[in-house]
Amino acid sequence: MTILRSLMAMAATLLAGCSGDSAPLPEEAEVALAPHWTAPSQRAGAEQCADCHEPIVESWSATGMARTLGVVRPEVVSQTGQADELRGLGLVSDGEQGYRYHFAKSPDGKAFVLGETHAGDPGFAMGYEVLFGIGSGELDRSLAVAHGSKTWFAPIEVLATEEGRKTVLAPHAAMSHGGRLSFPITNECLGCHTDALPPRAFPLNLTPNSQTWQPRGISCAACHGQGQAHVTWNESDSSPDGPDPMQSINDLTRYQQLSICAACHLQGDARIVLSGRELGPPQPGGDLLEQRAVFVAAQPGPEVGFVSQVERLSMSACFLQSEMTCSSCHDPHRSMQEPRERQLVRSACTKCHGSQDVHLGRADLTPAKLQESGGDCVTCHMPKVGVFDVAEVQIHDHFIRKDTSDALPPTPPHSLRFPESAAGDWKRFQWPGVTAPDHLDDPGLWLMAYAAGGHLQRAADLLDTAPGPTSHALPMYHHVRGSLLTQFNRKTDAVNSYRQALKLDPQLGPSAVNLGLLLGELGETDEGLEVLNRAIEQHPQADGAWRNRALIKLGLGNWEGAIDDLGHAFQIEPSSELALALAKLHGDQGQPQQQARWLALAAQLSPQIDPQ
Prior knowledge:
The chain has three domains: 2-31 and 437-605, Alpha Horseshoe (Serine Threonine Protein Phosphatase 5, Tetratricopeptide repeat), CATH 1.25.40.10; 45-223, no CATH class; 251-428, no CATH class. 35% of the residues lie in helices and 12% in strands. The protein is built from 24 helices and 14 strands. Strands 1, 2, 3, 4, 5, 6, 7, 8 and 9 form a nine-stranded antiparallel beta sheet that branches. Strands 10-11-14 form a three-stranded antiparallel beta sheet, with helices on one face. A two-stranded antiparallel ribbon has the order 12-13. A hairpin with a 2-residue loop joins β4 (112-118) and β5.
């Protein structure tokens, strides 16, 4: 049963997940690119607000936030801005596994393609269509690429430097060489880059239909909420019914205002959703910490995360001794690239620290005099520092303090990491002076956080600790617990956890995928097949369900059914491992032509595989 063991290694224990129709298997030994992603034609986002707020919208359109998601045009990835010029973006190698990446045009010239080659196999070449860009590009821009029916972060990204744009390994690829397309793009990733998320169910990184969803950046509704409802209310022919549904920022409390920014600028090492199946940041108007459990380093140091501004600001005496919010210094409707706005932000300290204040004990060195001489408060007290999760990038540390001598230079690629505390020594982030929530020490939330951070033993230590009422009501708590119990070979307990997850949320695809296989392993094959059949009916693009059903069928001797299911899984997410398994199955069934076809596909998908 070598095939069964190899396929078992591929049976993922899923933690998250979209639906759609399965396509037929490819008849030729090739994997086609996805359909071209075209620019949006519909009126969308902030544009609909311009009728009444044209100056603000025009100003907003120049901000980085307005450009945080969008179709990749030539000037975004081209150093010169010319449509036919890609020379400035050269070949990038992962340095260890031999994979090399570059940008090119698709054969018809209408799209950009991520090209992948390999140093050890001159005949290997893959192309993945670039679907959209993530990030404004003022510092760096990540890229989404299609493979099969799913969307992934490209292993390279575009970095903006003083010398111009260049391609570098993306952070996840720099941390894990040879990972290729291993980092899925989900709504949790996109939620800080657009307030118009694609409709998704399971798997979470299925490529959305370009006819029904187009990528665009953050609009007015991200902070003000209920944008379309406000337009409808405002355009009512008769007297508007009820109050304006648009959220007034001035009506919010300090921490509700901060929550709008913290939804994306409070990074943390783990974030747990406290409201069931919600995807992406919550709607503005509430307290973020009533909707998210955010885990940060218990002992913050000088190292700074790329979007850790709210965490760092909350440590500052300026913040703790005032009613300061982000808008005390920043106008969110104006670009920091504008010289005037940049100067206003840098002089914001003088709103509280006038010329009469003594600076570092010197009466002659006031903020006003510093600015007259070309200096400002920000340069010394919020210096630019390197970040631990994006190579070669610097941001202003929002921990405002007198002594910043421990400020760090840009981080080299080989030193990157995602968590602030790699050891998982965390605390729950709280607003200063606010009463802690009842679920602050909920063991179930900590279990989920440790599991998300890869601290499996710490999570396992909480498996038999009763969860608090908040986590106990979350389907994902029971799913994550089931995944951990499986890994620690407590399969019967895992089955019960998955059943509870599905009881709370019958549509929770990952739990159904895992439960079905687990029942098969425990000899409950009929029920296992029933669970997986139902999962496939609910989520036709759930490749994990097709793979796991194939495993049960193989165990029952149903080779034809297993081959068919694995073929469907391959169509959703092509991989050389699946192709090799299918080649072996066809070979064992005396089908040499089909075996040769799958061997050729395996060789096309991964280097140094002999198609013979």
